[in-house]
Every structure is written in C-alpha cells, then in structure tokens.
Amino acid sequence: MFYFISLLIFAVSLPTHAGDLDTYYELELEINRLHSQFNKNQEKVSKKNTLYHRMLKPQETAAEIARLQKENKDIIERLRPLKEEFQALESKLVVRSVTGELKNINAVKDKNLCLNNELLYFSTDREFEGWNLKYGSSERRISYYANKSTYIKSCLENRHEDSVVEVDYKSQSLCDKNSDLFKYVGTKTKYKTYIKEGLVNVDVSLYLKFDGNEKDKEESMALVRNSMPCVKDFYARHGLKLNVDLKEETGIMDRFKCDHTITISKEHKRPTAKEWATHKFANVANINDQKRCKLYIHELAHNLGLADAYKDRRCPDRKIILDDKNIMGDGPSGYSPYQAELNGSQLRTILSPLCD
User: Fold this and answer.
1) Which of 100, 107, 323, 335 is the most exposed place for a label (fewest CB within 10 A)?
2) What angle do CA 93, 95, 99 make, to 5 degrees?
3) How far apart are CA 164 and CA 166, in angstroms?
4) Looking at the DSSP assignment, which residues form a beta bridge with residue 195?
5) pLDDT of 185-242, one tens digit each?
6) CATH classification of 161-355, choosing from 3.90.1570, 3.40.390, 3.90.1520, 3.10.20?
7) First and final C-alpha spacing in the chain
C-alpha cells in the first residue's frame, strides 16, 4: 500500500512543462515495467488455473490465483494516473525541425531533423527513438532499449552481477579457401561481458597502430577516437553498454594486453576487422563522419563474433540478411549509423556466453 501511495504522489507531483524529457522517459519505463508485471501475473494465473493444480492443491491454488488477480487489479489502478501524466507530457513536448518549426514529439517521424547541427532522417518509430533518446543519459538509453528486449531482460533477471565472462575464440571462415577473401573472413573474437548496475556491459580493448605518412597519423587517430561515441550509441540502442579502451601506439606491453590490434590508415582497398580506413576505402572517397562510424561499427562487430551477412559468390556458405539497415547485411548503404540495426540472432551471438 505504501508503494501504491508513493507512486501516486510521484505521478501527480511531476512537473509537466514542455521539454521535460527526463520525466517522459521515467514514466514510459515505469509504465512498461508495470505492463510486463501484469503479463507475467496473467501467465502465472493461466498455469495455476489448470485441473492438475486445482486437484493437487485446491486451497493453495485458489489463494495464489486470488493474490495474483488482486495484484493485477492494483497494477491497473497504478497505471491509470501514470498514463494520464504520460499523455499530458507527450502533448506538450516539442522538438525543432530543420526548417525551424516547432513540432509535437509524435509529429516528427518521416521528417528531416537537426540535432547539434547534425542532419538526421527517420522513417520508423525505432529510428526516431534512437534520436529522441540522445537527450537522456547513456544509462537511460541503454535501460530503455534493454527493457524492450525479452532476451536481455531475461539475462538481467537470471544472471548475477558478479558473473564475468571472458570470450576468446576464432570464428570459422565461410569463404572459398581459394578466394582472396579467405584470409579476411574468420577472425579472432575476444571481449569481456558482464552485468553491472543493472546493465549488460561489453568491454573490448583495441591497440591502434598507424600505417602511413607520419604527418597524417594524429588526424587519422583522432578520427577513430572521435567516432567511438557514435559506435557506443549504436550498441546502446540495442540495450548494451559498450566500453572501448583505446591504446594508440603506447608500447609493446599494451599491444600484448589488448584484445585486438587494429591497423589504421588513411586509405584501404578493403577494410577488415583488423584494418580500418579513415579517409577512403574501396570506391568511397572522402568518407564523412557517418560513413566512418558505420564502417567501425561493422568491423568492430566482427571482433565481437558477428559474421558478414551480404552476398558474395566467393562465400557460398554465408548466411544472408536482406534487412535494409542491418549493419552486417545486404541492404543499401545510404542509411545513417543512427538507423543501423542488429537482429535478435546477432545480439544473441554477442551475449550468449553470458546469458545462455
């Protein structure tokens, strides 16, 4: 009862002024949590409400069903003021479009928007959420998306915070041994994953080694370094806290201790998990920040165990993903890193050592 009263006081006392995104997200998370608990209770009632349970322990079963039904009735009462507060906030929150117009938070999908002078485009609710949640803290973004993943929620519920898993293996190449791709595909997978403060963490350390003209070194290293927040944001939108420790030619001992050594160069004909370009790769010249971020997300994903999923006749056994925006897949390349996605199977590949 105390929790119920406290929740009501919390709901009615929250400020509702325009732009209060923190309150908006807190309400949304609480509403989602209560909905999840309601559904779990309903499942338990269904399991208890069988002939087997009713005949085996009739009194205990009836009492448990009554308790669960009462709890769900209380949840419905709790949800009512929260939803009213949430809808009131939603109608007042505004964002500014590229043209300078103020728009309701739900009226900006399929529009060009500008955040910190960066032009973004959204075509689905999920893409919009990725942009929208940039206003919250990193932890809030991660929690928000983790709460949407049944797999990650189950992992958080069933694993202890002291569980630390060190992943270290070499993935198998799916390309023809006689092709020039064979040496590129089938890479070392090494990272650490664990749960801390209610978040699934993935730690990876990278030793950066520059290959090229010395005068280009600092600029190229800075471009890689400055791309990491974008790379981390990609994983945050999938419910993971990615921690990347960069060492920039700091000596042989650091190189030995790091999970992976990455060779950085201005140009590369075919970037790989271990060879990244900063200015030009393949037939793409003068790559911008977004293309650079997508490249590093893709190549780093190899080091976390993910395989390429686009068509290549030299790799006949490769599993193809036709999703337009899958970061490893066979879709068009025109999407932004804020629209890039992983599917559930890819997420599970990264987290299965910890969660399965």
Assistant:
1) 100
2) 150
3) 7
4) 200
5) 457 899 999 999 889 999 999 999 999 999 999 999 999 999 998 899 889 889 999 9
6) 3.40.390
7) 37
